[in-house]
Amino acid sequence: MPKIKTNSSAKKRFKLTGTGKIARKNAFKSHILTKKTTKQKRNLTQTSYVSDGDTGNVKRMLGIGK
């Protein structure tokens, strides 16, 4: 069996945590920031986790697991 190639765009965007969850950054923080409140921009800075429904697809792109 050949090795599975890691998706290059996925390895730049996702990170595996110590507990096995996949961390990601929030969208909507790159431009058009003048109309967003300070609180909204501050909350978008924090990292989030990939939802359970998308975890399998992301793990497949990263070559983790099956």
TrEMBL record:
<protein>
    <recommendedName>
        <fullName>Large ribosomal subunit protein bL35</fullName>
    </recommendedName>
</protein>
<dbReference type="InterPro" id="IPR018265">
    <property type="entry name" value="Ribosomal_bL35_CS"/>
</dbReference>
<comment type="similarity">
    <text>Belongs to the bacterial ribosomal protein bL35 family.</text>
</comment>
<dbReference type="Pfam" id="PF01632">
    <property type="entry name" value="Ribosomal_L35p"/>
</dbReference>
<keyword id="KW-0689">Ribosomal protein</keyword>
<dbReference type="InterPro" id="IPR037229">
    <property type="entry name" value="Ribosomal_bL35_sf"/>
</dbReference>
<dbReference type="InterPro" id="IPR001706">
    <property type="entry name" value="Ribosomal_bL35"/>
</dbReference>
<dbReference type="GO" id="GO:0005840">
    <property type="term" value="C:ribosome"/>
</dbReference>
<keyword id="KW-0687">Ribonucleoprotein</keyword>
<dbReference type="InterPro" id="IPR021137">
    <property type="entry name" value="Ribosomal_bL35-like"/>
</dbReference>
